[in-house]
Amino acid sequence: MQLYMLKLVRITAMRMRKKANLPSKLCPCCLRPFVWRKKWEKVWNEVKYCSERCRSASKGRAC
Ligand SMILES: [Zn+2]
């Protein structure tokens, strides 16, 4: 039982580390950090805003 708990803790720690390793950016519109997403895999360097909403808001100078 104890060994099982130890394994569980280890797996949880690994998952948390993996999540923390994802790159993140700060949205200049809502000033909230956002984390890398699969859909941005190829355009991550060009991604500036957390969402389509913030992107269009910045174009309309609403930010
Ligand atoms: Zn935003």
Task: Give a quick precis of the structure.
This protein is mostly helical and 63 residues long. Helices cover 43% and strands 10% of the residues.
Which secondary structure elements does this structure contain, and how are they paired or packed?
Layout: H1 2-20, E1 24-26, E2 33-35, H2 52-59
Antiparallel strand pairs: 1-2
Residues 27, 29-30, 32, 49-51, 54 line the site of zinc ion.
Describe the structure in your own words:
- By secondary structure, the protein is mainly α.
- The protein has a domain at 24-63.
- The protein has helices at residues 2-20, 52-59; strands at 24-26, 33-35.
- The chain has a two-stranded antiparallel sheet with strand order 1-2.
- Strand 1 and strand 2 (33-35) form a beta hairpin.
- The radius of gyration is 18 Å and the shape is elongated.
- Zinc ion binds at residues 27, 29-30, 32, 49-51, 54.
